[in-house]
Amino acid sequence: MKPTGLYIDFPFCVARCAFCGFSVQGYRERPAMRYAAALEKELCLHAKNTEGEHRQITSIYLGGGTPTRYPVELLTRLLSLCREQFHVASDPEISIEAHPATINRANLIPLREAGITRLSIGVQSFSDQQLRGLGRNHTAQEAKEAFRAAREAGFHNIGIDLIYALPNQTVGEWEETLQATIALSPEHIALYALSIEEGTLFHKKNEAGHLSLPSEEEGITFYETARTTLKQAGYAQYEISNFARPGYASRHNLLYWNRGEILAVGLAAHSYLNREHRENTDSLPAYLEQLASDRLPLVNSKTVDLREEEIDKVIFGLRKSEGIPLRFVSHDPALKKTADRLIEDCLIQVEDSRLQLTDKGIHLADEVAVAFL
Ligand code: SF4
Description:
This protein is of the alpha/beta class.
């Protein structure tokens, strides 16, 4: 059976954050419940269409949006359905993204009992001023309380997500957020540089000249400060944006970077199965309508050939700190030539028969990817 990651998308949130460019909307009971019923239908259709039969689900990821905004009973039922419909491994990693304002002892204990092994808390910052600017409806103190409640509920694998290079942010303030994070001792820390997405409040403010953003050089300083601070605190960097205590790298995310099989269900979900990219509609009415007629809500599918897959494995694999085996490029003259050029430019290096990004290459990872394309 093929090891496969199952991703389930929940496109509803407490409120829209000022920087968020995802396809999400405010949580309202009726559409959220209709959507959940459609998700169940989509899962069953995939299981029936033999996607379920030949696969072993090694990880499940409930993401979005804010899955923890849903009633815990519904999430529990959905996980039971996954176990009924698919061959789920005996020790799956089951992650859920959590917004600090939506978790407390009352829902955390049943979530753990439902088999969730990993919590990824979107804290973003431990500065109240930054949180207000980001449009988050929680304070730094509430995020800390949510983290402690998760520990008390018995979660042993908790991640904290942070954003840096925020408007008016100083390096000192970023260091305070990093130290506050380390003080909680999460097993996993993910860092994202703010990017200004079209259609967001930040985009509008930026266009109007009302957003004071750090320069590219300052952005690099934020990133390097985090790398040094987290390394000193015992976190190993295992991917460009991800750091973990030993043994706590996200198995589900590693599947993506290893170009593994991913079955993704829900609005705007992207699967990669049998060398085929499949894309679900990002329109909620179309999603509900398709599933009401027992049809998969696909809007696009594209098969990639072996060579395209090989190139993807190089590009995605180089995001990981361990890089890729040298043989991924050495058998192909064109890939080898590109690799040699990037080694000459000090963007990648060979270490123990593996190709890895150099410190310079980490900052220019997109250029490295383009070179292989
Ligand atoms: S909670 Fe997450 S998904 Fe929802 S609007 Fe904010 S950033 Fe976007």
